[in-house]
TrEMBL record:
Organism phylogeny: Bacteria, Pseudomonadati, Pseudomonadota, Alphaproteobacteria, Hyphomicrobiales
Glycosyl hydrolase family 4 C-terminal domain location: 195-384
Family in the record: Belongs to the glycosyl hydrolase 4 family.
Cofactor note: Binds 1 NAD(+) per subunit.
Any single biological process term in GO: carbohydrate metabolic process
Top-level taxon of origin: Bacteria
Keyword Endoplasmic reticulum: no
Name this protein carries in UniProt: 6-phospho-beta-glucosidase
Molecular-function GO term, any one: hydrolase activity, hydrolyzing O-glycosyl compounds
CC cofactor: NAD(+)
Keywords attached to this entry: Cobalt, Glycosidase, Hydrolase, Iron, Manganese, Metal-binding, NAD, Nickel
Amino acid sequence: MGRGRVTGHLAVLGGGSPYTAALADAIADREPAVPPGSLVLAGRDPDALDAVGRYVRRRLAPLGWTTTWTTQARAALRGAGIVIHQIRYGGIAGRQRDEDLALACGLVADETLGPGALQAALRLRDPLDETCVALVQECPTAAVLNLTNPLSLTTARMIQAGVSRCMGLCELPRVTLEAAAAVLGEDPERACWAYAGLNHRGFIVRLEWDGVDRVPDLARRLGAETLNGIRADEIAALQAIPTKYFRLMRAEAPAHGQGRASFLTTLRARILEELRADSGRSPPSLRARDTAWYPRAVVPAIEALRSRRPVDREINVLAPSGVVEEGRARIDTAGAGPLLPARAPAPVEVWLAAFRDHERCLLEALERPSLSSVRRALEADPLVPAAKAEACARLVWACRQDEASVGAA
C-alpha cells in the first residue's frame, strides 16, 4: 500500500446505509482518541441519506465534527483524506439473489464465500470499476477503507484499478482474539499474537501471554464447547485458531435457512423509521445486528491513520502471493506498511495454499468472465463439493447472463 500523509475530510460511500449510525456511535465512543474533523456522507437514496445524516450530525456535533451529505459521490470524494467504501452494489435484492443461488446449489447462503460470493463479485465488477475511477480522479492520495463484500476480491479489484492506498477491513480477527482471551481468562490487549490468511479464511497462528503459547490450553479448556462454532479438536489439529467461517469447510456443513437478506431488508426499514421519528437517539433496532466492524476495525484504523505513533492493526492488502491476504500491519499517518510476518503451522499452510489458489481462480473469473473461468473458480473452492461444481457454475453463469441482459435493456 502506498504511503503519504493523511489529510482532508472523511468521506463515506454508501453513507445512506442505516448502519452508518453505528459508525457515528463508534466514533463518539472513541472520543477523544479520534480527533474531530469533517465528515461527508454520500448515498443514492435521498430520503435514507437525510435520515442518517441528521442523526450523525446530532451525534457528532457536540464532539466538534461537521457532517454534511450528498447524493453526488464525486462531490463527497473531492479532497478526501480517508474514504470508507461500504457500497452494497445491487442492494439487498442482489444479496437475496446470491443467497438463493447458493441454496439452489445445496450450499450455505453466504455473501462472502462460495457461489453466492462469486455471483456478487461478478455483479459488482463494472460499477466498482466506475467507483475506482472517481476515487483516483477526486482523491488519489486518500486512504480507502474497504468494507464491501466479498472483501478480498473487491480490495484486489480496487488496487488493480489504481486505488493504491486501499485496505480491506474486517473485525473477525480481533473478535476471534477476544473470544479466545475470554476463554483463557486473559486480557486481549496484552496478547502477543500473529494472524495469517485471507478474509473469512484466516487463523490466529500464534497466541501468547508472557511468552507462553496458549493455543493448546485453549483447546483443553474448550472441552465439548466451541469457540464461535469451532471445535476444540479442530484447534488442536490445526495448532491454530481459525475464524468462525472455518466451520463451513467441514464436509458435513449443511445449507441452512434462507440467508439473511429478508431479515436485513426488514431491519433496514425499521432503523430508518426510528431515525426519522427521533434523530436524537441511537435507533433501538440497530442493536438487532452486530456491527462490530465499526468499533473493532474501522474506527481503530481511522485512529491509527491519524496517529504519529505506529499501531498494529488487522487489514487486507495485496501480498507477495499476488492475492489480497489478511494479516496484521503497522499503520500510522503515512498509511499502512506490509503485512507483518506470521509463520503458520504445517496444517494451516495446507489450507492457506488452497485458499490462495482459489482466490487466483476467482480473480481470473472476474478479469475474464466466462463459463469455463467460473467453473475453474468453483472447482478450486474448498466450500464446493466436486460433484456440485459443474451445476453451480452453470447456475452462476446463467444468473450472470440474465443480469447482464437486464442491465443492457
